[in-house]
Amino acid sequence: MAKHKLSETRIRTLPVGIHSDGDGLFLRVRKEGSRQWFFIYKRAGKRTELGLGGYGQGTAPVSLALAREKAEAVRQRLARGDELSAKKTFADVMDDVIAVKEKSFRNEKHKAQWTMTLREYAKQLHKKPIGEITRDDVVETLKPIWSKIPETADRLRMRIAAIMDHAKARGLYVGDNPADWRGGLKDLLPPRQKLTRGHHAAVGYKELPAVLKALRAASGVSARAVEFAALTAARSGEVRGAAWPEIDLDAALWTVPAARMKAARDHEVPLSDRAVDILRARQQSATGNLVFEGGRDGKPISDTAMVKALRAAGAGDATLHGLRSSFRDWAGDMTDYPRDVAEAALAHVVKDKTEAAYRRGTALAKRRGMMRDWAVYCAQGQ
User: Considering only CA atoms, which of 282, 280, 304, 281 is closest in space to residue 291?
Assistant: First the structure.
């Protein structure tokens, strides 16, 4: 069958109806003026029509050249014997990508964030055939959150782009990636706000002893978990996931494994006497592997429960992460401990190789003294 019957010039003057470009590629011109590409093939006597996008429509029009490229990709798949009648949707490919990426995620939290962003904010793409997704579809998906939560929106865009790249590699999508920022999105969405981590609301270190006094007077797992987080300057996720095999009570040392650390490397946390007392008390009632188990067996205390306990102790709108800021401000304002020792206590990554080597060699001993002094400071008035 002859191919390339149409031309860009001729397309603009075509009457209403269906027009062949040859070898299965057609253009449907409707009364209202819209033009849609589609591909027709037969297998076992069954006729199937595949949509390839609109000509000169939306923000991602399919030109004659791109329609031919898409049609050729279909022909190649048919020649390989691929089944095309059941179209792969965005959700199908999304699940495939998540399954592939699972092994590279640093931890469960990262995996959950990656998955939640796509499942929650890209819902309107889920049922669309992956080969028919346009730049306009991506724009409409991003618009509701683009200005409201810009950092999440940009992460969503990058994750959609990763799925489209995966689809292209498998021959399920032909053409430019519709989620590529420089491929056209930058002209269709407002300029991106500068993405910043922002500052977490924190209790001033001068007020913290009073908050910890109230926490110590409170009963419940959440109060103990928050107090332990404050005394160790650890992230809430590290505390919530703390397990007994990580803890050496005799050596007063908690070793958080790399799999649960943001920097993906083991982190040793020297424990003050009060931190050890909290752990020994928790050990008396332990029924499982987790130190701070929640209401359900095998599940840690929730972040929400910890935040409620913190605020019930008079911390205002302070966040759990803000406890780390309280510690860092105290170390900088009230002590002579070197900056790198305080940074090591927070498990911050240092780019300087000399400083990084120093931390590995001697910072633990100095950090033990610092965390002891921090616990003494936090116990003022108790």
Answer: 282
Annotation: CATH topology of 208-378: hpI Integrase; Chain A (1.10.443)
Rounded to an integer, the average pLDDT of 128-141 is 89
71-112, pLDDT tens digit by residue? 888 888 888 887 665 678 899 899 888 888 877 766 666 677
Residues near 256 by Cβ (< 8 Å), separated by ≥ 6?
Answer: 234, 238, 242, 246, 266, 267, 268, 269, 347
Residue 32 reports pLDDT greater than 80: no
pLDDT for 165-179, tens place per residue? 998 888 788 778 899
CATH classification code of 90-187: 1.10.150.130
Strand, helix or coil for residue 26: strand
Ranges of CATH 1.10.150.130 domains, the chain: 90-187
Fold of 8-80: Double Stranded RNA Binding Domain (3.30.160)
Range list for CATH 3.30.160.390 in the chain: 8-80
Contact (CB, 8 A) for 238 and 257: no
Residues whose CB falls within 8 Å of the CB of residue 368, separated by 6 or more in sequence, listed in order: 252, 270
Q: Does the predicted TM-score (pTM) go above 0.70?
A: no
Residues in contact with 375: Cβ distance below 8 Å, sequence separation at least 6, in sequence order:
231, 272, 273, 274, 275
The dihedrals phi and psi of 256, each to the nearest 5 degrees, come to -85, 120
Nearest Cα residue to 173 out of 145, 138, 144: 138
Closest CA to 291 of 351, 234, 224, 371: 224
